[in-house]
Amino acid sequence: MGVFKKLVGRRRGVDDLIFDTVNIILMLILIVIMLYPMLNTLAISFNVSTDSVRGGIHIWPREFTTFNYEHVFTEATILRAGLTSVLRTVIGTALGVFASAMVAYTISRPHFFMKKFVTLAFVLTMYMNAGLIPSYLLHRELGLVGSFWVYILPTLIGVFNIIIIRSFIEGLPETLFESARIDGAGEFTQFFKIALPLSLPVIATVSLFVAVAQWNQWFDVFIYNSSIPELSTLQYELMKVLSNSNAAYGSGAGAADQFARSASGQIETVTPQSVRAAMTIVVSVPIICVYPFLQKYFVKGLTIGGVKG
Amino acid sequence: MGEPASPLAVTEDLKKVKKPKKQRKPRNGFKYFFRRCREQKELVWMSAPFLIWLFIFRYLPLGGWVMAFQDYRPARGFFDSEWAGLKHFRFLFSDQRFMEVMRNTLAMSIINLVLGFVTAITLAVLLNELRNVKFKRIVQTISYMPHFLSWVVVAGLVSSALAMEDGIVNILLMNIGLIDEPIMFLGVGEYFWGIIGASDVWKSVGWNSIIYLAAITMIDQEQYEAAEIDGASRLQRIRYITLPGIRSVVIILMIMNIGYILESGFEAQYLLRNPMNMDYAENLDIFVLRYGISMANFSLATAAGMFKTVVSFIFLFSANSIAKKLGEARLF
Amino acid sequence: MVKKKSFLLLVLLSLLMVFVACGSEDDTTTDSNDTSENSDNNSGEEANDLEPVTYHYFIGVAGSDLHTNETELGALFEEQTGVNFQVEYLVGDLMEKLGVMVAGGSYPDVIVPDHGIEMLLDAGAFIPLNDLLEEHGPNILEMYGDYIDRFTMTDGNIYYIPFGPTINEFMPNPNIDQGAFWIQRGILKEYGFPEVNTLDEYFDIIKRYADENPQIDGMNTIPFTGLTYDTSFFTFSNVPNHLAGYPNDGSVMVDMETHEASVYGDSEYAKRYLQALNELNAEGYLDREMFVMNNDDYLAKLSSGRVLGFFDYGWQWGQARIAIEDMDDPDKEYMALPITFDESIEDQYIDPPAFTQNRGVGISVDAENPERIIQFFDNLVKEENQRLVMWGREGEHYTVDEDGMFYQTEEQMAIVEDQDFRDDFGMTTFEWDWPRINGTFSDGNAVEARRQPAVALQNYDEDDLEYLEAYGIETFSELFAQPQDRPWYPAWSTNVPQGSEPAIFAERSEEILKRHYPRIVLADPADFEDEWNDFVSNYRALDVEAYEAFFTRSVQERLKGNWQFE
Questions:
Q1: Could you report the per-residue pLDDT of C410-443, keeping only the tens digit for each?
Q2: Residue A45 lies in a domain
Q3: For the residues B251-266, what does the mean pLDDT come to?
Q4: Are B102 and B248 within one domain?
Q5: Quick one: average pLDDT of B67-77?
Q6: What string of DSSP letters covers A129-140?
């Protein structure tokens, strides 16, 4: 009961108590439903793969092993790839969020004469897809193929992010900007001193979106840099491990040999399902850890928001 | 609310007074354009580099759309591929399954859109009502974890949850007594859209609620305090403060998503479809994959992309102008 | 005006910035990427030059990237030829990868484009190899011998080298790794090892066992199931063909006399099999989830030991096989049976000698000194090197008996079965996707160790022997008939142009089969005829004749020796 009181906190009447109780019960159910897939994946990642094939693993491994992780980490290149992943995530997020915020600021200014044009120019691109080959040819002309910057430049600005940031800046009281202008502040000053700091919660949100997108991306490595081991990323290395373990059980000569070899049944082996589970954990844990750091900016935004009126 | 907003009102008045003077000068033409550039050169400086970026990376490659009217072969390039006129569009629209594919696409897209919005907003509001900050953070962090699982993993879990013999859903329904016989959920085409919708909510509701939580933090706390003093109930506070506070974000997101009306998802359908439910599972993206990309027919894929763009624009502009007419926030 | 200029300047400047930023980066990376090749390629004039050189070898299937000289064999071959390869395997979609390669016009030095080969040939990405082979590939020419015509294009040029021509003698696999009706072998033991050859006998014995054992290990018995998921649907739709006594020629069966190809999707054979399944279902012996479960669900069911019988290709259910072996219940393991519709039909489950002439490895126009690559290939297909790739080193990995036949001792077997060893030694790398041979060496030993009867026998344990003895056979494949002579086999390896009518037909017909077959099987037996007729009318609405004509022509051209024709 003590825990429950702690969760409910101070309350003011029966209505509140009912509301909080229902809410907390809902949230507990939610935790169970949402935690299950992750725990299931974790359990499979630590279970002997040939046993996992039988199914029926829930939240605890039946035959414990770390072999699936050993298999995922066999490649020496994985550390280097991890570094590239971190680099592209950090640089991509910093530049991307900054650029998006800047554009968002300009189109949030009611007096900007190109406001509508710029907004539309950006928004329309959300629904137009040139296709893989034209994009590839362009990036080749720009010298981006075989370069680190192909991870950063083509996806620099997310239109969705611009619009989100814009609507937050528009929500800030115009009086703040007015008084700054009266004090002689230019647009850059207003952007850096007012718009950016006051929209920290949304900046944090957008940073999370961009960071996760960057971290999870593997397709651009595949298309542009697959022949250059130095530019490989963690996600791409893991995709390799996964498609390799898929192939070992798929069609072709390799599979026939796998079949013959399996006759003795002594070798510890991996299945696509187990590799996928281990991979999911390896890739998602670092990025899940990022969020709690961003959460504090939500609270900060809250206090600033409180002051702004 | 009812507070006096004097500074704002004053500036609005000032603007009104100033305007008539300017109207004498021409409102269009290069001269006007450059004059405005000069006046707002800082804003121009801020946006120009990104407009150039936009032109290069987003508009320039659209020249590749020409391949929709060709029998494009990568070996020949855009200049030497044979012209095909509207062949690929005809292939797309005249296929006997096109109507069925469109029906599935639209149905799943609309279900995902509505379910997605309702659940994410509800979750954000409920999370916001949690008083214990630590508990709130834990719930939130857990709620978006499924977002990091790939569809392959989620589809596997969905499929085993819906299994006939030991699937949790059938076991629950049997125990409650709602059914006497286990249901083969994935074997009935009519259930497919619902299954996709529910799986999509499971995977992304937590992630989608983040944006609304961020929006809620921007709401003025004084409003809540004032409401509490006035004796407003929790539900009233949600209804009169929280929801109006995130209204404009919701509407903007909705307009953007309505533009994605033909994007009903791909992986979930691809992984959960089977011979028994294929008539309800196949959407435009799967169709294009089968007859376009996996047959190296990039022209067909491009034609389908152009078709999607046209439909997107129609829905986008309609949604935006409806929002405008209703006096709501709009996208542009 | 000044302001106008400054605005233009701004535009130009930012454009410049974008270009400089990416341009400079690009230069440095391409340089570092190219150095290994440029510095090495200076003096490639002389034929027997051993100057070290590294080529980029792209393979359009999955695998683990490596440099060939990181493996023991690769290092040896580098010593012999001076050539090393940076091998890159495919990760994503093959068509997308090849599409940008061709559109951009820059290629890896060596490419194995798998089923995307048409696109590269169309693009002229490969150089003709005729002269190079003449000059630097005597061993390749000898090993591939008569097969060379099969991959010589209509313009008289050879653009790629397929894998695995059968030389000397054809060696069938002692174990069944192809299609078969599998049965939990304990059932056979229970009923005194009867001969089960026809579909009726097969279903009868399964039904009888299921009636007597409604539960296995506390779980409901699944008498019969099969794989139908996604791209594995052929595992279900191919069955009538096998029951009728034909090997896997694709979606057509080829008449042995007229050599006409005909689709069997709506044949009497298909109807007969579906009717049998329909009855099975009506009696409650068919897995209800047969058309719903995905690959993982299917494997989980097989692994549980409660499935009595199923049809599958051996290489598709390896994971379940290992799981069952781990259970230490030898009677739960599965045995392959050569089931046909009736006794008069000779089964043809075992593949005839096959040569997939529309897959192979080619050298791209971007490769410098391509003769070095041919020299490497030529060295690789020498018997002594093929023996190293397939068997390892004599004494270490295999032993030679007094008749000169190879076998593996228990210790040697343990070594070569270890995946890590195979990777490090280079067996995994070179056993496919490189020029290689099949069949037997000139001394009569099988090229592939697993096809050597002595090796297969060595692998059998006590329990296996019990079954083998009961049926009076030495290897499990002896239950099956020997493959008949089908010089065109496999018909499915015909070069089908991408996006052509036959390609679209294949996609559409699979769609119709997928939609109708389950309905027919699960229908009330009274509605069976209606469902079947409904399917046939839909299926025949496609241009079936054109598709059949396409393959008939291919088969007949092949019989005339024309494997490439227009």
A1: 899 888 888 889 889 999 899 889 999 999 999 9
A2: no
A3: 93
A4: yes
A5: 89
A6: ---HHHHHHHHH
What's the domain range around B35? 1-85
Nearest Cβ partner for B52 among C15, C229, C499: C15
The number of C-beta contacts closer than 8 angstroms across A and C is: 171
Contacts of C228 in chain B (CB under 8 A): 274-275
**Chain C contact partners (≥3 CB pairs within 8 A):** A, B
Q: Which residue has the higher pLDDT, C31 or B312?
A: B312
Q: Omega of the bond prior to C490 within 30 degrees of 0, cis?
A: yes
A30 near B CB under 8 A: yes
Contact assignment for B59 to A103 by CB distance below 8 Å? no
What's the total number of domains in chain A?
Answer: 1
Strand partners, C286: C224
Contacts of B213 in chain A (CB under 8 A): 298
Residues of chain C contacting B293 with CB distance shorter than 8 Å = 93, 95-96
CA separation for the pair B273, C293 (Å, rounded): 10
The closest CB to that of B210, out of A8, A205, A301, belongs to: A205
pLDDT digits (tens, 9 = 90+) for C1-23: 444 444 444 444 444 444 444 43
- Architecture of domain C49-169+358-439 in CATH? 3-Layer(aba) Sandwich (3.40)
- Measured between CB atoms, does A223 come within 8 Å of chain B? no
The owner of tokens 């227009």 is C566
Chain C interface test: which of A72, A75, A147, A156 (most C C-beta within 10 Å): A147
> What top-level class would CATH report for the domain C179-349+518-535?
alpha beta
Output the pLDDT for position B162: 93
By the 8 A CB rule, do C228 and C236 touch?
yes
Sign of CA dihedral A23, A25, A29, A32: positive
Q: What is the tens place of the pLDDT at every residue in A51-60?
A: 888 888 888 9
Q: Is C110 helix (H, G, I), strand (E, B) or coil?
A: strand
CA torsion A78-A83-A88-A90 (nearest 10°) is: 140
Amino acid at B241: I
Q: Is A278:A71 a contact under the CB 8 Å cutoff?
A: yes
**Chain C residues touching B165 at Cβ < 8 A:** 220
Asked, for residue B316, whether it belongs to a domain, the answer is yes
Contacts of A53 in chain C (CB under 8 A): 296, 299-300, 303, 319-320, 322-323
User: Look-up: residue for tokens 């997310």?
Assistant: A158
Number of helices and strands in chain C (H, E): 23, 17
What average pLDDT score do residues C487-492 get?
88
Residue of B nearest to C520 (CA): B276
Sort residue A143 into left (φ over 0), alpha (ψ -120 to 50) or beta.
left
pLDDT of residue C27: 39
pLDDT digits (tens, 9 = 90+) for C225-263: 999 998 899 999 999 999 999 998 889 999 999 999 999
B279 contacts in chain C (CB < 8 Å)? 515
pTM greater than 0.95 (yes/no): no
Choose the closest CB to A243 out of C22, C62, C297: C62
Q: Report CB contact under 8 Å: B53, A156.
A: yes
Taking the CA atoms of B245, B246, B252 and B254 in sequence, report the sign of the dihedral they define. negative
